Amino acid sequence: MNCEVCQLKELEVGQLESEIREVLRCIFHTVLFHRALGLVRPKEVDLELFEITYVQCGDSEIEKKIDEKIEQFISWVEKHPNKKSQICLSFYEIKNKQPSWFNKTERLYWEQWYINLNIVPQHPRAHSSKSHHSKVVVDPGESVLEERNVRRAALEASLREVLFQIIKFVNEKKDHLPPIPSREGVVCYPYEITIPSSSDSAFGMDMFKRILQTGHPTMLS
């Protein structure tokens, strides 16, 4: 099976729980909404930190699963500060395997979204400006606030680019979509979210298993 891969633009996110939550919720829900099966009650959500509105499927189970994964990722960030990271949102279908001693079903991945984040320090260092004749000391609190606002404005612009990237991808990539699951009440295609683990090698092994299952070389940064 052909597995389509979308590498989303890297986002520079501050090491603030609220900022990480808003960015990831926005991206996860946007992708899932565009891969919904029609059995949804669209719910608009306004971000608190950015002038951006996105749409959720309006399903409590999806919201719960996303929030749980985000909290796991935040815990990982606390242990691995100031580090680049990658989260994978994968869609798959379940197929019956040929009779064997192993499991009778397998997951065939048909689409993967890679969310690339660069986690930066929460409080930039204050600085002073110098001239040939004098030295002007900038108030640390004022400097930090100004730098944070500049960075957050840049993040908002980048997040908008990511949302457009998602919309462009789902509009152009349709031929690989599998048949709609026959189960009643299904809101979207089966999916899973993979975050970095306490061991980077473990995360790498997860990605390697996907390559074996899909037969498609995923593009890791």
Textual characterization of the structure:
With 221 residues, the chain is of the alpha/beta class. The protein is built from four helices and nine strands; from the N terminus they run E-E-H-E-E-H-E-E-E-E-H-E-H. Strands 1, 2, 5, 6 and 9 form a five-stranded mixed β-sheet that branches. A hairpin with an 8-residue loop joins strand 5 and strand 6. The longest helix is centred in the last third of the chain and has 33 residues, at 140-172. The radius of gyration is 20 Å and the shape is globular. Mean pLDDT is 82; it is low at 126-132, 201-205 and 210-221.
Short overview:
The chain contains four helices and nine strands.
Oligomeric state of the chains in view: single chain
Q: State the end-to-end distance.
A: 23 Å
| Number of DSSP strand runs | 9
N-to-C order of helices and strands: EEHEEHEEEEHEH
**Approximate shape:** globular
Poorly predicted runs are 126-132, 201-205, 210-221
